[in-house]
Amino acid sequence: MTESSTNNISKKTLLILCTTTGYQTRAFVEAAEKLGLEVVLGSDRCKKLDDPWQDGALALRFENPDDSTRLIVERACASRIDGIIPLGDRATPTAARACQALQLPHHPPEAADVCRDKYLSRERLREAGLNVPAFTRYVIGSNPNEALVSGEAAIPFPRVLKPLALSGSRGVIRANNPAEFTAAFQRICALLASRDVQVMREDTSHFIQVEAYVEGVEIAVEGLVDRGRLQVLAIFDKPDPLTGPYFEETIYVTPSRLPEETQVAVNETLGRAVRALGLYHGPLHAELRLNSRGVWMMEVAARSIGGLCSRALRFHSSGEANLISLEEFLIRLALGEPIHNVRREGQAAGVMMIPIPEAGIFEHVEGVELALQTPGVEDIRITAKPNQKLVPLPEGASYLGFIFARGSTPESVEKALRQAHGKLHFAIQPALPVI
After folding, report:
1. Predicted pLDDT at 21
2. Domain 347-435 annotated CATH 3.30.470.20
3. How many whole angstroms separate alpha carbon 83 and alpha carbon 104?
4. How far apart are CA 129 and CA 41, in angstroms?
5. Cβ distance 160 to 299 under 8 Å?
6. More confident position, 213 or 156
7. Does the pLDDT value for residue 10 go beyond 90?
8. Which of 93, 159, 359, 383 has its CA 20 to 30 Å from the CA of residue 340?
């Protein structure tokens, strides 16, 4: 970014909508402060804020985006808001409505709502003629034996069962036969009825989606839409096979090693999906599968990549000597600044989301310093805290931490991530049963 463009941005106010003040929030706040912006937080967990920036956060309820929008508009009348960044899926409907009310560029509310619901988004994608698996949905509490023979009974095994709105593969289970289907159905019902899900008070928590399993290689795409124009920022290979019964993501590596013609097909398919969903201005994160039958559009989220994974992405900007982060890039987009001539750095990069191997209580980790000496490894962030209860997928919603690497080739990056992970040893004690 040039000095003149930085001066144009400085003194503007950015509203960040978040559910916690975790590491993703901090990354956006730091990028905004680097640009000289005033930052305001809007959170639906205001009582839990540790107020690290004395932010005076807006108290919002993301399950009620219309009321939250009203509060944001009231705040904007008293103190101008120049851009809004939603973090995570839950905040996207509120951000879309608030931007519409304040005449700020963003994805339309209808598009944000559709992307929050796997059933509705599947309908839109199917209507647009895109490859999507056969699918249906059931109300939680339904008899799974009846679900086996009702609705889209023609869906073949294996089937995949999933919640409509949870992210990070949480609650996603593959069933290869009727017995596994019944067990998975009951397990997801229990997850959706749990306190930490019900406290979100979302209508989508009352349904389970069932769909045909799609064989093939899975990839992720990080991109954005700039006033209707799709820009793909990175295609991530996922070298670990995601075949079930659970679908825990571990390694992302970019640039993709897919053939050029396949990457072109991915870009074309994603462009069709963007138009079908009505996305207009803002970030997106997409999941696709590839097999002999073509490119399959699995999911599109109207938000950026989650957690600390954004640290794997850095960009060159015209007129800027230093690399810029994804957070800075997306802030410029939210403020309506020009983002042309921005491209990902030349080096290959990757991140490992360190999986939770077993349920229990996290005590400590050994081998971090040794793992950091692995050629290509840039950083290791252990985000699990001592005495934290660890819950693996499909019920869990977190990782032990993140490993970041860069190198001359995607192969060297993947190798560095695996070698570093092999040097880490996590002490996890069994959790005592609650009596």
Report:
1. 61
2. yes
3. 7
4. 40
5. no
6. 213
7. no
8. 93
Predicted confidence band of residue 48 (pLDDT cuts 50, 70, 90): very low
Q: Which residue bears the tokens 């905004």?
A: 32
Are 380 and 403 a contacting pair, CB within 8 Å? yes
Q: Write out the DSSP string of 145-177.
A: HHHTTSSSTTPPSSEEEEESS--TTTT-EEESS
Percent helix, strand and coil across the chain, each rounded to 5? Answer: 30, 30, 40
* Residue intervals in the chain for CATH 3.30.1490.20: 134-212
Distance CA 341, CA 118 (A): 33
Question: Does residue 8 register a pLDDT over 80?
Answer: no
The whole-angstrom separation of Cα 410 and Cα 23 is: 26
Q: Is the Cα dihedral 147, 150, 151, 155 positive or negative?
A: positive
Asked whether the beta carbons of 379 and 428 are under 8 A apart, the reply is no
Query: What is the CATH number assigned to the segment(s) 134-212?
Result: 3.30.1490.20
Q: Tell me the mean pLDDT in the region 126-138.
A: 96
CB 393 within 8 A of CB 357: no
Please report, as a single letter, which amino acid is at residue 280.
Answer: Y
Amino acid present at 314: R
- φ, ψ of residue 237 to 5 degrees: the values are -75, 145
pLDDT reading at 233 higher than 90: yes
Nearest in space to 309 (alpha carbons), one of 422, 183, 404, 169 = 404
pTM above 0.90, yes or no: yes
DSSP alpha helix (H) spans, 278-341: 326-334
Distance CA 270, CA 268 (A): 5
Q: Is the pLDDT of residue 150 over 70?
A: no
If you count them, how many residues does the chain have? 435
pLDDT digits (tens, 9 = 90+) for 309-353: 999 999 998 767 789 999 999 999 999 998 877 899 999 999 999
Q: Is 58 a residue whose pLDDT tops 80?
A: yes
- All CATH 3.40.50.20 domain ranges of the chain, comma separated, are 3-114
